[in-house]
Amino acid sequence: MSFSFENIPRDYEELPVPVYILKGHTTGAKDGLIAAISDKFSTQYFEVVDGYFKAYLHLSKGYNSIKLKHVEGAWDANGYAAPKAGGKVYGETSMRLNCAPFEGEGTFKTPKVHLCVLLGKDSKGTFDSPRETAAYQGNGLDTAVRKLRVAGRLMQAFTLDEMAKNGLGKRCFQFVEESGLSSVSSQEEKARVQRNQIKIHVIRSSHTVAEIRDMQYAQQNKNAKDAGKLFEFALEALKSAGGDFSDDSTAHTPALAAVLILDAHWSKQKNTLLGHAALGGGTDRIKLAIFGSHGLHSWPMDWESVHRSFTDCSRLSTDEVANDCGECSSRWECLCVTLGAFLHEIGHSLGCPHEENGVMLRDYVTMDRKFVSREMYCIRTGRGQWGPVRTADEPGWNRLDAVRFLFHPAFSLSRDFGDLDFKPRLCLANQGMKIGSGVDAGPNFVAVDRDTLDVQSETGIYLVECHVGEWSRLHYEYLPKFYSGIGPQKSIRLNFSLIQKQLAPQWRNKPLHLEVLTLGCGQASVDNLGQFLVDHSSAVKISGNRLAKKGTLYGLNGGNPVSAVFPAGKAIRQIRVSHGMALDGFDVFFSDNSAVRFGNSKSHYSDFFLDQDEILVGVAIHSGAWVDGIQFITSKKTSPLYGGNGGSLHKFMIPNGASLLGFYGTMGSWCNQIGVLYG
User: Fold this and answer.
1) Do domains 431-535 and 544-678 have the same CATH topology?
2) How far is Cα 144 from Cα 615, in angstroms, rounded to an integer?
3) Annotated catalytic residue, options 47, 211, 304, 345
4) Quick check: is 345 catalytic?
5) CATH, domain range 431-535
6) CATH superfamily of 544-678
7) Partners of 472 in the β-ladder
8) How far apart are CA 141 and CA 649, in angstroms?
9) What are the Cα distances from residue 84, in Å, to 66, 74, 75, 88, 631?
10) Which residues form the Jacalin-type lectin domain (predicted)?
11) 171-228 pLDDT, tens per residue?
């Protein structure tokens, strides 16, 4: 009689969150229960199906000594573990798991997610629930807080398991926590155990329940006038709450927040779910995910009821609660859909787009499979009860999500800081959530020829996605060296013909969208790579019968086309830049006192001088809707910033073997767009 494990942590591994899904096999019997007897948590039970089990262990900070016993028993009619009194013990084993949340390194502090409940200013603090469920669980604010604490741990367990499965370490985002009387376990609550647990921020909106439930703001109302309004309400409420969400606190480091709207309500009369929106994203101050409370009634209230909740086949009626997307006909299915969708929105707030599969599509409808070894009858699919549910059957995060998480500061581990390519100091400002001023995260694109693209980034490129149609069909990842990668790259060369060969045949010779991600939250794209290479590698004729290539055009607004072509063979001695808080234009003076002008000349200007042996090798552009400011990079130095520092910073360095031949762009009242001519 023995145990074997798929994923038991190594002795030296530290778990960043107090939950872990241990998967294993026991030869003692094909059924029964696994009892997890811990020195730091109440005894937990897990089902054995054909000798296979999944133990979603709740831990405490520090070393947790855990004894696993395979005992005789089953689940009672109420869905709780019922070990047989005096029953057989088929086998046992012991282990130690080390929970050591990473708080930061030096001045770097790990960003954490604030888990919040949002109520209308006149809300009674209740949520939709079947009458029978509300009778024994309650459906008030206290119940909501308890359920959210458990839900947060389930999200962490799910994500931690996925990062490890992807070979990217025992990583997970952390929630903001607080110490108090434990509510995560009914046994601990009775014993009045003190525990660190997830802090739930209870935030009041300045809007009434009626406003929150306005039909015109209901996301599932196809005729809604403003289906994103609840996102605005949540942002407003967070800012008004102050503290970590105040303007002062978020000026340099954005806050992370996940908000459950408690006043969501199913209106059978209107056949619409009101006060609900599933959205994730945010601003440069607050990264936010929001979701409604309409499925909260199905979520477990404590750790002892997790198994019950994921196996409860009780039918739900739209006379009482919403059937979200027609996939919530039973309690366990409702739990998967609503908890999984909330996790999906948190994924958006952490930088993940929709993907071809995984949580960022809708694979979370089978979220139960991550936690239980047997799936119950599913109304959605009509599939009967089956098991064992193995790792291969589980839903998960897409590989591209996992790579994004690896490079997100909220997923940092202590080992990361020994690799300066992976965690360069210039990316650690503002806890890695916002790139420091004067740093170009890029990426910047240079077309070498019709088949070759150079991609540059001052901080390092870590992911390149090649999209054909809606999804990425091929990608290149630059993992840290301690994960057998080559590390983020400051410059890479992509060959269009090689990409075509590496794509599956059905995706070749179709428009290819390139998405490139860099350290420091940098991201840029090329809409049609083949056409981009043609357009940007094709030379245009300039004065003196010379040929020049056009670099990337920075700035978004149109205007009147302008250009400034440098005369051949003349050295630059001075640049006079006209600017206020935006770039108006500049005059370039040469060694023979001749000059060319780009844009407008104004009375407010600054002069930049070059030595006789000094040449221009690049420019740094601050741009958004227009060109805010410019810096000139020479073979010896970088000029001051002329203009403002709004928008994003972009650096364009002249490729080796080429020279700066001039500038092109568009002008309005000031400079709208600017790009480099080189050859």
Assistant:
1) no
2) 65
3) 345
4) yes
5) 2.60.40
6) Jacalin-like lectin domain (2.100.10.30)
7) 467
8) 45
9) 21, 8, 10, 8, 76
10) 548-679
11) 999 999 999 999 999 999 999 999 999 999 999 999 999 999 999 999 999 999 999 9
